[in-house]
Amino acid sequence: MKRKWEVIIGMVGIVFCVIFLGGFSLTMTSMDEETYKETVFPILQDGVSLGAVQDSLEAMKVLSIWFGITLLLVLIFVATATAFIWRNCYPKWAAVLYLVAGLSTLIGTQFIAFPIAFLFFLAGALCLFRKGASLNKKGDAYVSNSY
Q1: CA angle 101-103-106, nearest 5°?
Q2: pLDDT at 66
Q3: What is the largest CA-CA distance in the chain?
Q4: Are strands 133-135 and 141-143 parallel, antiparallel or unpaired?
Q5: What residues contact residue 121 under an 8 Å CB cut-off, 6+ apart?
Q6: How high is the pLDDT of residue 7?
Q7: Which residues in 107-120 are b (16+ Cβ under 10 Å) and which e?
Q8: Greater confidence, 53 or 112?
Q9: Upper half-sphere CA count for residue 85 (Cβ side, 13 Å)
Q10: CA pair distance 21, 69, nearest whole angstrom
């Protein structure tokens, strides 16, 4: 594996996605109305949630489902990108998939998780612009300095 930094940065992004997006999604979808009313609803009273408790709970559950779907898409994109970059076979395809994972993180979280998306954009940029080792006809690895 010659592209270990790209893989590491992508995996760190996945870990953050699972912790934050998955944690929020799991917490909000399993929360009942009474617990929501006691814990989350008072925090949202300052101009965010002006409706009834039930309407606010439904909106938060829809948001958590949206985060869960985003997490699944990002997992698929990053796993596929990691498979493409594993033996330094298709770095341009991996870059496209990392960039799509970053965009879907931004759009799926409504630009809330931009620090996580930055990690995917960084991994995609490294795939595109970082020179990797090439294999010559004998199978030996060498780094080319020419374009």
Answers
A1: 110
A2: 95
A3: 71
A4: antiparallel
A5: 98, 99, 102
A6: 92
A7: ebbeebbeebbebb
A8: 112
A9: 33
A10: 10
Neighbour-count burial of 94, counting CB atoms closer than 10 A to its CB (0-12 exposed, 13-18 middle, 19+ buried): buried
The pair of structure tokens assigned to 77 is 């994109």
Q: Could you tell me how far CA 123 lies from the centroid of its own chain?
A: 11
Name the residue among 80, 94, 79, 89 with its Cα closest to residue 126. 94
Per-residue DSSP letters for 57-90? HHHHHHHHHHHHHHHHHHHHHHHHHHHHHTTTS-
- Closest residue by Cα to residue 79 from 13, 140, 22, 128: 13
As given in the structure block, the two tokens for residue 88 are 């330094």
Q: What tens digit of pLDDT does each residue of 44-90 get?
A: 776 655 567 888 889 899 999 999 999 999 999 999 999 999 877 88
Angle at which helices 91-108 and 4-17 cross, to 10°? 20
Exposed/middle/buried for 102, CB within 10 Å: 0-12, 13-18, 19+?
A: buried
In this predicted model, what pLDDT tens digit does every residue of 10-33 receive, in sequence order?
Answer: 999 999 999 999 999 999 999 998
Cβ atoms of 24 and 67 within 8 Å: the answer is yes
